[in-house]
Amino acid sequence: MNIYLARILLNIGYGEYKFGMSIIKILMLFCVLGFTNAWVKYTAKYIALETWDKMRGFFTFSLSITLLSSLICLTISVIVLIIIYYYNGIFYNTVCYALFAVPFLVLNSFFTFIFNGYRKILISNLLSTSFVPILLMAIVFIYYKMTGCISVQNVFVFYIFALSITVVVGALFFKRTIFPKIRNITPAYEKTEWLTVSINLMLASSMFVVMSETCIICIKLFCNNSEVAYYAASVQIAVLPVFTLGFVNKILAPMIADFYHTGQKAKLQDILDKASTLNFLCAFSTFLFVLFFGKYILSFFGDDYKSAFWILIILLLSQCINSMCGCVSQFMFMSKHHRPAFYILSLAALVNIIVNIILTPTFTAIGAAIAYLISMALWNFLMLIYVIKFEKVYPMVRLSAINDTMLEFLSYLKRQTK
Known about the structure:
single chain; mainly alpha; 0% strand
């Protein structure tokens, strides 16, 4: 989808589109208040403990809070845009359109992460990564073929429509699968715990967004929309290993919460070993492939994008480091270590901002990619040291785990050929 948008919107339009999406991602931090990870954690925990009353209370409370905060954020954002226009005469038309996607994103996040914690991974993936891109791509394609032109504002209108359809689908799935289990249950509330944990998770998760979106914002401020487009295109390719990491994390997160809170440490270490091995092999193979064919892949966005080759290589190196350290952040979020995770990620985000300010004005998008690489390596290594020291769990890639995984795979192939 991003390749098609980059071609029809061209460099400047695509850069403006990605800038609008960055603003949405930052706003979503204050809208969901960290409940994204909390939805996974507490859903898995309450299913394991069969405390259905707390599950119903948690769903009701968290959805009410997040919808209220999204409306507040939307109102404040519109007021800020009006103030900027009044004093500077600049009206961010694209951002204004993008803002109205926020409440729909909150609802979609609720259903996505609830199904993730409920271990309905297929439904969760359909809601988070399939329905919206497919619907948006279809609508944009039809509109562009009919009119011969399209604006960034049109894309955001279609994006909101695709989100609304996805939310309806998510609600129908929820009504058929989860709601019957809690329909006649009287809700029980642990509001203080839920808010405390979710805010800590929000603060920690916000640092991920700061690190990723600071790069685009700094490029926008110090360079131009074309450089934003080059960096954004590189990110779209560099996140290919993240699809594997994201899918594994969706399966892993509720299992970590389950095994950790029920004290099954051997099973916990086993799934961490298998997940880290799979993630690392995918990331490293992607890096090698892009190293040889990166310019050709970038040319799908347009011939101008070939100049983003080294940006892409640097970003892929950061993903290799991320996969090498395993699912360490997911472990800290799903266990009791969300507060130390916030401290580590805050330090990494601060380093990211400082390095961006230093390097981006001189080295443009390459400087931003280097800043991202440094911050990625910093928080991964610090989290890894912390988890090994305090939990005696080893989430990183280990040679013994790679060997065991390969032997299991070869044994599986041998059984299939008999």
